[in-house]
Amino acid sequence: MTGHVVWHGRRVAFRRGESLASALMAAGVHNLGQAATGQARGVFCGIGQCQNCLVRVGDRLTEACLLICEDGLIADPDAGGRDG
Ligand code: FES
Fold it and tell me: pLDDT tens digits, residue range 46-74?
């Protein structure tokens, strides 16, 4: 392991070069947020096309499958455009 990200307040270890989606799945995290319909979202395509893995990093949304982990990165689930 080469560091930790913080997912929704939980420390998650990652390997160098690993995407956030990969690190989260390895840690047993599969629910990455909530769609506007209320359904849970997670990794689907894994290549940045479906937008199903959008997560909040600071004030922006980004695809977890494309985001390479950095030590101390803080990310949270997105609530489908709603606060929370
Ligand atoms: S899983 Fe489809 S964009 Fe990330």
Answer: 999 999 999 999 999 999 999 999 999 99
Q: How many domains does the chain have?
A: 1
Is any ligand 1 atom within 6 A of the Cβ of residue 31? no
Beta bridge partners of 78: 33
Q: Is residue 82 part of a domain?
A: no
Q: What is the CATH number of the domain that holds 44?
A: 3.10.20.440
Cα–Cα nearest to 43, from 73, 65, 76:
65
How far, in Å, is the centroid of ligand 1 from the Cα of 2? Answer: 24
